[in-house]
Design goal:
The chain has 413 residues and is of the alpha/beta class. The chain has two domains: 2-174, 3-Layer(aba) Sandwich (Rossmann fold), CATH 3.40.50.1950; 192-412, Rossmann fold. The protein is 35% helix and 23% strand. The chain has 14 helices and 19 strands. It has helices at residues 15-25, 36-41, 44-51, 67-74, 85-92, 99-106, 119-123, 125-136, 162-174, 217-228, 256-267, 311-320, 344-355, 395-412; strands at 2-7, 29-34, 77-83, 111-115, 140-141, 145-148, 154-158, 192-197, 202-203, 209-210, 232-237, 249-252, 272-275, 282-284, 305-307, 329-336, 359-364, 375-382, 388-394. It has an eight-stranded mixed sheet with strand order 12-11-8-13-16-17-18-19, with helices on both faces. A five-stranded parallel sheet has the order 2-1-3-4-5, sandwiched between helices. It has a two-stranded antiparallel ribbon with strand order 6-7. α13 links the parallel β16 and β17 (359-364). α10 crosses α14 (395-412). The protein starts with a strand and ends with a helix.
Length: 413
Amino acid sequence: MRVILGVGGGIAAYKSASLLRRFTEAGHTVTVIPTRAADEFVGRATWEALSGQKVPDGIFDDVDKVNHVRLGQQADLIVVAPATADLMARAAAGMADDLLTNTLLVAACPVFMAPAMHTEMWSHPATRDNVGKLRSRGVTVMDPASGRLTGTDSGPGRLPEPEDIYDAALRVVESPAGPLTGSSADSLAGKRVVITAGGTLEAIDPVRFLGNRSSGKQGVALAEAAAHAGADVHFIAARMDVPPPAGVRLTTVESALELREATIAAAAAADVVIMAAAVADFRPAELSGSKIKKRDDGDDPVIKLVRNPDILAELVTQRDQGRLPKSTVIIGFAAETGDDGSDVLGYARQKLQSKGSDLLVLNEVGEGVVFGQDESAVHILSRSTADVEQAAGSKNDIASAVIARAAAEMDGR
């Protein structure tokens, strides 16, 4: 495989030498294209010794071979590591002011970026918007690791380890359609998609709460897949273990009641609503104004629970009553376990019938299953057909399948 390794100008550029060695030892032909700033961190002799290939000097190197176009056209994979905030900004803007950005602009192969920068740069709205733009165009942008940065700083923004970048980049190539391609890049063009994610927290007192194990990973993957399909995404996030997606409208909530309010408001202008959040079924009937203490008499506190509103069913009711557009596609998620009464599919069919959503995505859960895992399997049930579609693999693979079904539901109307 012909690989372009783009190296941005950050201190993490030294890690790219290990990444380069992994590619070459696996038999791939690698051409390194460093930015001018990257040359200040790692000398070209290192790149050439490890790759066995000449490092091109720039746009005017080998002009007779039209290098600034040829390299990108002939590559099977482009990996940029580290991808600095400046480099991603220039790539998102479509600039071509050096050989690397020229190569990115003509590339027809998968492009994979591994960001590295200070935490403030990664979390800045400009960077998040640029990441969102790149992802919406099909570029795979890996989330940075969290840890020690330059100097004494620590936090999200650290370049992932070379072996992690290598494995993730190869998965992009090995996937027949890339990580977010279960639906075409235009299947939701111009559509407004609301996605809820994470787990709600129901306060008991100022310190304690009732919660669940939802990580939010699937919701983030859904948002990225919807953006890749051209949608305008409104992401409503409860508690999550992962950062929210870049380049989307973001609303953060905590409790089920807050989630209900935000979702109903957003759904009024939505073409698709995907309820991927794990909403607590119950909340404490009363919120203690102070921390509940252990009593000297040994009596344990009794916490009375009340039901939370069924947001998914309420959305369907509002649509049926004309308070939401009749064309809005509503998709629910169900985390189920089987028991003596029925298997998971049986419970899912009952839930689809009672909720009235157009699609229901079924997760089979249990100890160490689905919650927080990067690989899972789901069943997609439809109210309009008895057929059950299965999707398995990464969260991105499953998100692509769900977004493709959402687009198909819209086409069917």
